[in-house]
């Protein structure tokens, strides 16, 4: 194979003699073509079996990535460099397939070396990087994950949620918090001045992967990154703590948030209420619900529904009825789900006459009730509010990369 590769390189150096371009290389597989150029280069017949084999290898390099064959990787790199300007789509697909097979073979170090060699030649293949990042996550290769992630952050404009999640997954088995913080600090420096957005998403990803202590560690080290937390940062931390039942810590963090001068928003209060409700802390739910209104933040349909159901199921039907009245007083249209829930609560409490009264009221106003579309719109608005966590930083480091990737 080495001898064949050298012969192929000799032939490429001779391309000036008979216009041995990359487009003609693909034609070397036919006997007629060798016959037609034998006058200009008669010795090529001697190399026919070797060159024919190399040409076949070129077309299948992407699917024959040998785990330890550096020569093959170098040959593939040269072929990409020679052909990507004319066939960028094909080069992109071939590169990703090659990286995929390297990853499958467990040779992640060769895959990143190949991609960074292309990067140094101003060729960036985001999909191949994402393939490698996913493979690094599967093997808990934190070093490679952060190298790949940093390249994506600098040279690619859009990082998907999957990139952040794979970065977090790669850290699942590490207990080296010093290395983790060092890597995250490097990411923060690269992302400046949008580092708060990036760190927020990293914290969120660690929370999603149930790596709570690491998420909290990164949060507590933010100031050391010269990265200022914002309301979204605190909302993320409150949600992470609440989801794992650490509601006392969640409330303490909420207090710290206010003491630091941050003004809680709609998502902040809904996060508190939802997590407190789940663990039965209804006294605190009512406290924060009132604080929410006093702060000028209007509870919505879903907030009222969850509060009414929580108090009703716990036997506090009087509070549930007061919340229902307050909802209508605020001109928030009840939904059929709230009516049915309230009616069911009243029946279980033995208040059958009141349950019948609400049933009649529901039937009379059924055309004016909020439906599933209202809930869908509410979810969309919530996602847009949370979407700040998903803002993609616009990084400009003066690099002019040729991206083999559709915009």
From TrEMBL:
<dbReference type="Pfam" id="PF01535">
    <property type="entry name" value="PPR"/>
</dbReference>
<feature type="repeat" description="PPR">
    <location>
        <begin position="300"/>
        <end position="334"/>
    </location>
</feature>
<feature type="repeat" description="PPR">
    <location>
        <begin position="265"/>
        <end position="299"/>
    </location>
</feature>
<dbReference type="InterPro" id="IPR002885">
    <property type="entry name" value="PPR_rpt"/>
</dbReference>
<feature type="repeat" description="PPR">
    <location>
        <begin position="230"/>
        <end position="264"/>
    </location>
</feature>
<comment type="similarity">
    <text>Belongs to the PPR family. P subfamily.</text>
</comment>
<protein>
    <recommendedName>
        <fullName>Pentatricopeptide repeat-containing protein</fullName>
    </recommendedName>
</protein>
<dbReference type="Pfam" id="PF13812">
    <property type="entry name" value="PPR_3"/>
</dbReference>
<keyword id="KW-0677">Repeat</keyword>
<feature type="region of interest" description="Disordered">
    <location>
        <begin position="385"/>
        <end position="407"/>
    </location>
</feature>
<dbReference type="InterPro" id="IPR011990">
    <property type="entry name" value="TPR-like_helical_dom_sf"/>
</dbReference>
<dbReference type="Pfam" id="PF13041">
    <property type="entry name" value="PPR_2"/>
</dbReference>
<feature type="repeat" description="PPR">
    <location>
        <begin position="195"/>
        <end position="229"/>
    </location>
</feature>
<feature type="compositionally biased region" description="Polar residues">
    <location>
        <begin position="388"/>
        <end position="397"/>
    </location>
</feature>
